[in-house]
Amino acid sequence: MKLTSFLQDGKLTIALTGEIDHHCAKAYIQSLSAKIEAYNPRICVLDFQDVSFMDSSGIAVVINTLRNMTRIEGSLVLTGLSDQPMKVFRASGIDKLVEIKEAV
Predict the structure, then answer these.
(1) CB within 10 Å: which end of the chain, N or C, has fewer?
(2) How far apart are CA 35 and CA 14, in angstroms?
């Protein structure tokens, strides 16, 4: 698990990398929660561009991040999704709860 992040004008962008599965999901959830708590952003963008694989544990990562952002009255955006993670999110209905944007 590796992630990088930066904050600009109230927007926290976090780039996730590698595989998101049951082995690392808890660590991702804790890291993302800590960053949101530390920066208190208006918008949190999770960038999945460098995620090579994701199972249903990725849903838990997104739901927990959404819950944290809702608690501080912020919004969550997902970007950079390849076909495989996008299929997981569509099957779960996450795409109806969270804004998904094409990578810029």
Answers:
(1) C
(2) 9
Provide the CATH number for the domain formed by 2-101 in this structure. 3.30.750.24
User: Of 27-36, 65-74, 83-92, where does mean pLDDT reach its minimum?
Assistant: 83-92
- CA pair distance 67, 90, nearest whole angstrom: 19
Query: How far is Cα 74 from Cα 80, in angstroms, rounded to an integer?
Result: 20
Rounded-to-integer distance, Cα 17 and Cα 50, Å: 5
Distance CA 61, CA 94 (A): 11
SS3 24: coil
Region for 5 from its dihedrals, namely left if φ exceeds 0, alpha if ψ lies in -120 to 50, beta otherwise: beta
Q: What is the pTM of this model?
A: 0.94
Domain ranges of the chain: 2-101
